[in-house]
Write a structure and sequence with these properties.
- The chain folds into 2 domains: 48-151 and 355-361, 3-Layer(aba) Sandwich (NADH Oxidase), CATH 3.40.109.30; 167-345, NADH Oxidase (3-Layer(aba) Sandwich), CATH 3.40.109.10.
- 48% of the residues lie in helices and 14% in strands.
- The chain has helices spanning 3-28, 31-41, 48-57, 96-115, 145-149, 167-177, 190-208, 211-220, 225-231, 249-257, 260-272, 287-306, 316-319, 321-330, and strands at 69-74, 77-82, 120-125, 131-136, 182-187, 221-222, 235-236, 276-282, 310-313, 340-345.
- Helix 4 crosses helix 12.
- The longest helix is centred in the first third of the chain and has 26 residues, at 3-28.
- The chain is globular.
- The protein binds flavin mononucleotide (FMN).
- Flavin mononucleotide binds next to helix 4 and strand 9.
- Flavin mononucleotide binds at residues 61-65, 97, 100-101, 104, 154-155, 157, 235, 312-313, 315, 353.
Length: 363
Amino acid sequence: MTRRTALIGGGAALLGLGGAAWSVQRQMGSMAEYEAAAAARRVAAVPPEVRDLIRMATLAPNGHNTQAWRFRATPGQIAILPDFTRRTPVVDSDDHHIFVSLGCAAETLAIAAEASGRAGQIGFDPAGDGTVLFDYTTGGTGEQALSGAIPRRQSTRADYDGSAVSAADLKLLVAAAANPDVDLALVTERAQMNRIGDLVIAGNATQIGDPAFVAELKHWLRFSPNTALRTGDGLFSACSGSPALPDWAGPLLFDMVYTVKAETKKYAGQIASSSGLAVFAGAKADPAHWVQVGRSCQRFALQATALGLTCSFLNQPVEVAGLRGDLANLIGLPGRRPDIVLRFGRGAALPFSARRPVEAVML
Ligand SMILES: Cc1cc2nc3c(=O)[nH]c(=O)nc-3n(C[C@H](O)[C@H](O)[C@H](O)COP(=O)(O)O)c2cc1C
């Protein structure tokens, strides 16, 4: 061996040793990184009380119970972002329902926060996809009436008892829903309710006749308690007053009973047994106003719950675009886009719908 080859051989051995050490180090990881990560886990990134507020917000109503929202908590602010991976493009082609649902969640969050001594303001940042912002400080009235209704509110899709709601309670509902960006038409006159009901029934028949609508709906249906709990989302049959079924049997039975005739009878009964209808229309048709509609509608629903009333949505005439004009004319707002139709009255509670764990919706 010459001196030169010995040097080269020694260098290669050294390089080899260095390379091996680097690879072992890479496999092991560094102590500095370990200690920084371990320390970070000992500080609550989101204080438990803020996590609880977000959990309350997720109890808000939302289209098809897709829960198309994500929450980002930073000190003094909770941002609510749309989750477009959970879109329902057939029934909600322009994401109207997603932004209404974000508004429902934001209002719920604000009410829960106020009750726990964190007064705040809801804003809308149109940048990017559009984000709802809840900025809060300490303070707040501790007002409990509406916050107590948050876990008790549900969409009760059953016949009601047909009894009238007193003028005083109707006044409270209107006052709770008051929002300068939203018009509310409260309809308790039977003939007018039936005219709106006819649009609900017409919209429902259009939707049932659309295979894409039915396929999308079926994707979000849950038939067994196990699946409803495992996914934590979607429309569980028992929450609409239908029987819980094995997962294999549910879709088969659904195909047999989901007919225009049966659904028309169901909705006619629901409308006839309701005390009234509330139709919400934003001043403009854009995401910022849809959020305001959600806020107003959720305040209405929480006030109704606090008064011992029940509500459920009959949105067919706002989902089927061709019926929006007729509905707008019926409520005296020609040219506007109606956003939500809610029925209210008195009825027995049904099982509550599921939600995903709060960790699943936090960024
Ligand atoms: C924007 C929006 C649209 C909705 N549309 C309907 C509807 O047309 N029919 C219906 O039965 N429920 C409708 N819902 C109610 C949701 O399905 C319901 O909120 C969801 O399944 C969660 O159940 P919960 O309200 O009982 O918590 C709607 C809710 C929102 C926020």
